[in-house]
Amino acid sequence: MKTPIIWLEMFAALTILFGVTQVVGGAETNGLPNYAFDGRITRPVLDNYLSRSITFSELLHGLGNVPDNLRLLTNTGAKFIGRSIYRWAGETGLPAVLAKARPIAAQAHRADPDLILQAACFEIVSTETSQLAIPEWVFREFGLPVEARHFRYEAMLYPDGFGRDHWAKGASVPDMSQLETRLWFLYLAGSYIDLGVEAIHFGQVELMDHNDPTHLHWRALLDHARAFAAKRARRHLLLCDAHVPSGGIVHDGKLLFDFHSFPLRIDEVPDKPMQGVLKLGYLDSLFGRSKGGVTPSGWVCEHLPFIVELDNFEPSGKEGQNIGSAYIWGYDEISWFAHLSESDRNAWLRYAWNWVREQDRNGWLQMPGSRTLCAPANGLRWYWANPKSTAVPDGFNQEETIKSIWAASR
């Protein structure tokens, strides 16, 4: 039975009234979009950020031309920088990535103090986790006795073997019901927060919850991460999201995440090779299905705001063919996009932005800025929205289109 919305509204009002932090911010301040928040975030301010979201994978890794990447972000007016730092296995490289990221994050916030940098904690752990020592603060955050030991890879896995070696030999799906998994995820989250990160994407949560049907352990992990952010984050808040094929996770009327995210899910136009369109109800697309309830910031919604992006996933081996499923003409979404001509890429971004806003006002198109290409385009294995230049010789040139779409949507 659904919780009546009037009771949700009363609960939210009490949450805000007796909360220790203040909800700050309407949609505009002095006629300009408002990006102010501290401790909690209002829906208008969250929408302002999501409306200027861009996937810029590995920005904080120093990938590409950092000065030109930051120039693109400030020139377009980007405010939410998706997947700017993460590890996909290779955990022993994390300390070096964190050290490289710190000055880049500081530089980004000098360029625009309002920027939200997002990290990602994905649905993968590898044997390399066992080579990293658990910091004392992680034990303390969980109220555990401090030990001098490393993380234990085997202790993060499903006891019944589900997801073992799912990604590769020695790279498995973690089980969030295991305490060791929660220690690992808090270590990742806290490390990113201390860089200046204020949002984390938690990947395919539902792969990691098979022993957690009520999401008790996920809620506990996010409570720890949010409590850490309340003490250490730039604006005392951590925005959490994940891919939610079910439409979202709600318990007793309360939403697990601050916003939702999902791939676009693009359908082929069968008689027009390489053309793709968006459709309501296509596959497991999120349009019209984002669940509502009481958000972590205390406000109530019928449908939680969400972003949709050009996702990347493993090659099909049948590129250029109409094979259905999540593949668009046999490509993952960002690879398909990169294989279009420049004019078609620009036209498709305009089409997708307008379609999403017309079909579901809770949704926002997350623009493509930087992302790996599982199916190389013209020999290139990375997509950059930057203009082709001496700084970025492999740019795909969507910067001005992104800027103009956003400028027209004020």
Shape descriptor: globular
Instruction: Give Rg in angstroms.
Output: 21 Å
- The number of strands is 20
Q: Biggest β-sheet: count, sense, barrel?
A: 7 strands, mixed
Spatial strand sequence of the major β-sheet: 9-8-5-4-3-19-20
Mean pLDDT: 94
Question: Helix amount, in percent?
Answer: 25-40%
Give a brief outline of the structure:
This protein has 10 helices and 20 strands. It is α/β, with parallel strands linked by helices and 410 residues long. Mean pLDDT is 94; it is low at 1-23.
Describe this structure in words.
- Helix content is 30%, strand content 17%.
- The chain has helices at residues 5-18, 43-50, 66-76, 94-111, 136-141, 179-193, 216-232, 333-339, 342-359, 399-408; strands at residues 28-29, 32-33, 53-56, 80-85, 116-120, 125-126, 171-172, 199-201, 239-241, 250-251, 254-255, 260-263, 267-268, 276-277, 293-294, 300-301, 306-309, 363-365, 367-377, 380-384.
- Helix 6 packs parallel to helix 7 (216-232).
- The chain is globular and about 60 Å long.
